[in-house]
Amino acid sequence: MDAGIKSSIHGLIVTPLREISDGRGSVLHLLRSDDPAFIGFGECYCSETFPGSVKAWKRHTRQTQNLAVPAGRLRLVVFDNRPDSPTHGALAEFELGRPDNYVRISIPPMLWYGFSALGTSPALIVNCADQPHDPQESERIAEDDASIPYCWQFQAGGGQ
Q: What global pTM score does this model have?
């Protein structure tokens, strides 16, 4: 199994995913228990995002996110404000989805992330988290919070 590609943010891993297609449709892999990124299973869920909508900013204090976009196109942005991180202040932006960028983004705890759908169709993001959801271990801030150097205004819905 491929261990993934390290990104510009310490601990953030991008892993190309396998897609098996034929004339009837596709099987889209996300995460296996023998994958180097597998830490444990907590829960798996889908989140739909409508064009022009932004779901930002969120971070988890203990939970690792394993995200993939099987339907639609999505812009995912990750920001590192961890004080002791070697990539403190770094921002990573990804355009995810099929057919050209079906990958898993593994986001370790304490990184801020958000996303918006690109184009005119809703996007579906799947998260296979290593722990069940616990509202006490996650934090949210507004999409326009000045502590994160990113402007969603021109990004949502595939705009400039």
A: 0.89
